[in-house]
Automatic annotation (TrEMBL):
Gene3D superfamilies: FAD/NAD(P)-binding domain (3.50.50.60). InterPro entries: FAD/NAD-bd_sf. One of its GO terms (cellular component) is cytosol. The lineage of its organism: Bacteria, Pseudomonadati, Pseudomonadota, Alphaproteobacteria, Hyphomicrobiales. This is NAD(P)/FAD-dependent oxidoreductase. GO terms for molecular function: flavin adenine dinucleotide binding; UDP-galactopyranose mutase activity. It comes from Methylobacterium soli. It holds the Pfam family NAD_binding_8.
């Protein structure tokens, strides 16, 4: 089988489907290929098990970019519900509200520990590390060594499987930028007094402090299934069970040839003028023939994998948290999702609860290769140790593995990404990288969508008028959306900015 399209999109996650939807809406010929044989959405899909629904990681629908919010409403106009945001930290047998409540934190930590935290913070601010290179350095400068060890170190090392000294400071600067201890303390004091925090005029919203968010009533998969259906309605195509394993570019004609393999071993070939990829950079570069010089750099990029053990229990115990961060090193679980608190429709039976225990691992390690029975046994033991439900209350369970869930920000990732980007943009002018894995950037769902929105603008314009690599770095490109990008573009015309 051979098929030609104007634009071929690799990956039917938020970035790929956003690109496919916007291009098909403009009447452009677009084809989206997805490796998964059963459903779209990527890490933002919703998994169903015996009538119970759960996320792969939990996805809040909150964005400071109006263009993204408008697109959510356009694709899924009638199925959002407003949900309270509540999460806690579990540390040494005690629970801490997150965002912190000052008096609760003081009571749990004790006066001596709390005083030591404040003194540690003051020391770090007085004598900061001049050029923070690691996650440890960056957080220590912002919060002090003591708070780093209590509220950052254990959980972060569970997520990434490496020392905080080996994780680039870029990750901290990107994920918790804008939240400083002063702001957190002010917010915590207000919350402890039972008041709503007030923002000063012009003060930005800090995502980690928001109190509510929107959520599709049956999980985020609703959004991406609706997007795929709309692409088809608009004349585009979304095909599942298509794993891309070969790419070649004819510079003379400007045409891409894409080789695809299916689960049954059959092969298909597609050609396209434009190629949008949300596939992991390492996989994409490996598929290009002849091999780019930057293949070595791409292969050096690392990914953290992820699995969820969903426990369904007949239990009267209930708690309002969306999720609980587990900072206790005595258990392997990193975070616990409470799916009923995301949406009551996720848990169809009264008197039952469904909790998702999240484990971070590397593909091929002991956790990843453990049998489902062993993982369920581990999850039941650990949920009992934490004290959320009793292991003997569990009546059903399901294990879902998610490879390449998180691009790793190690000490060399920045140089490796830069080398790959430089070569691909130079040699393949119609290749566009989008999304979290496509750009090896730990983007949120809305950021991934924005990279696709700006890429579509570039394709429609016929040149790279927007630098999508600035998404989640420059406010103009992230918070204000397309209009902000256009404003930034106007300033770039006055002060030329080189796109590497």
């Amino acid at each position: 089988m051979s098929y030609h399209t104007e634009t071929l999109v690799i990956g039917a996650g938020p970035a790929g489907l956003t690109a496919g939807y916007l291009l098909s809406k403009q009447g452009r010929d677009v084809l989206v290929l997805e490796r998964d044989p059963n459903q779209v959405g990527g890490i933002s899909r919703t998994v169903a098990h015996n009538g119970y629904l759960f996320d792969i990681g939990g996805h809040r629908f909150f964005s400071k970019a109006k263009a993204v919010v408008d697109l959510w409403d356009e694709i899924l106009p009638d199925d959002f519900i407003e949900r309270p945001r509540l999460s806690r930290i579990y540390y040494k047998g005690k629970y801490y509200a997150y965002p912190l409540k000052a008096f609760e934190a003081l009571r749990n930590l004790g006066l001596l520990q709390s005083t030591a935290c404040v003194l540690s913070y003051l020391y770090a601010r007085a004598r900061p590390i001049a050029e923070p290179k690691s996650f440890h350095d960056w957080v220590r400068n912002q919060f002090g060594e003591r708070l780093f060890s209590i509220f950052f170190k254990t959980y972060t090392e569970k997520v990434w499987g490496m020392s905080c000294d080996a994780i680039s400071a870029d990750w901290a600067a990107q994920r918790i930028k804008g939240l400083d201890l002063g702001a957190a303390i002010r917010d915590a004091l207000v919350r402890s007094l039972g008041l709503r925090p007030k923002r000063r005029a012009g003060e930005p919203v800090i995502k980690t402090l928001i109190e509510s968010f929107r959520y599709p009533r049956r999980g985020p998969g609703m959004m991406w299934e609706a997007a795929a259906a709309r692409i088809a309605d608009q004349g585009g195509r979304v095909l599942l069970d298509r794993g891309v394993d070969g790419l070649s570019f004819d510079a003379a004609t400007g045409i891409w040839t894409v080789s695809v393999i299916r689960r049954d071993g059959s092969r298909e070939t597609y050609t396209a003028r434009n190629l949008i990829s949300s596939a992991p950079v390492r996989d994409l570069v490996d598929a290009i023939k002849p091999r780019p010089l930057s293949t070595f750099n791409a292969r050096a990029l690392q990914y953290r994998d992820f699995l969820t053990v969903a426990l369904i229990a007949k239990s009267r115990a209930d708690f309002p948290d969306n999720w609980i961060y587990i900072h206790d090193p005595s258990v392997q679980v990193g975070r616990v999702q409470n799916f009923r608190s995301w949406s009551p429709e996720m848990v169809p039976e009264a008197g039952y609860t469904c909790l998702g225990l999240e484990y971070f691992c590397f593909e091929g390690d002991g956790l990843w290769t453990a049998s489902d029975d062993d993982l369920v046994a581990l999850a039941k033991a650990e949920i009992g140790k934490i004290g959320l439900i009793a292991p003997d209350e569990v009546v059903d369970a399901c294990v879902v593995r998610q490879p390449k869930a998180y691009p790793v920000y190690d000490e060399t990732y920045r140089d490796n990404v830069a080398a790959v980007r430089l070569e691909l943009e130079r040699d393949f002018p119609t290749l566009h990288l989008v999304g979290r894995n496509g750009m090896h950037k730990y983007n949120n769902q809305d950021h991934a969508m924005m990279t696709a929105m700006l890429t579509v603008e570039n394709i429609l314009a016929g040149h790279r008028r927007h630098d999508i690599w600035r998404v989640n770095e420059d406010a103009e490109y992230t918070e204000a959306g397309i209009s902000g990008a256009d404003e930034a573009l106007a300033s770039e015309r006055l002060v030329p900015r080189k796109v590497a």
